[in-house]
Amino acid sequence: MRQQAAQQLRTNLLLVLALIGGMAGVGFIAQRQPVAVPANVALIASAKPVAEEPALVVEPEGISIVSYDTPQAVEISVLSPPAGADSTTAATAGDRPDLAAPSDITPALPTEFDQYEPLVDLQPNTRMGSLVFSTDIDDNFEPVAPQRVFGEGFFTVYATFFYEAMADGMEWAWIWRYNGQIVNGGNELWAYGDEGPGWIYYQPPEGFREGEYTLEVWVNGKLFGQSSIAVESGVANQ
Length: 238
Hints:
Elements: H1 2-47, E1 63-65, E2 74-78, E3 127-128, E4 132-134, E5 149-151, E6 157-164, E7 171-178, E8 181-189, E9 196-202, E10 211-219, E11 222-232
Parallel strand pairs: 5-11
Antiparallel strand pairs: 1-2, 2-9, 3-6, 4-6, 6-9, 7-8, 7-10, 10-11
């Protein structure tokens, strides 16, 4: 009888120990699982980082965009901030010798770039300076490393100039030609004040090809500025 009781006691003890061991194993697994999951997630995240959002491009104030055939391919900007504005002081043309009066060249302004009636007549001293070409400009609208010969490819050409005795309400137009054929341009009423520096840029979607590109600037139907650049193969742009 005592032997049966002792045997039963040992059996019960073994069952209790087995039960305790099983619970410890479950607890051990439960404690390990939360540690393993973050490690795996971190590994995946480091192997394939989240793509960066594209940078937001903010256009500077005081810019008018007008295009011909290709939207936003031409841009005109002038530096003539209002009084008290937190901006760079506008440079003035003064008595610069390079300022040009209306040209006597015979080409007429194409009809598609003569869509406005000027509200203000030309002044006797209305002048526009020489066009200077570059692939970059500084904060004062001055050309950086100006050049007249460029290499083929995809880039932007800026044409900077000075003007004086202009008036808001005059009609003006700009025309880009490639080997004599119109490829871009714009036409609007002037709204940039009487004097200061300005710039026009051109970035053809097909890129600059070998040949000659000419920019014309017209005011109230008269040709005030005309200049050309050459695009050649094997030339390095500044």
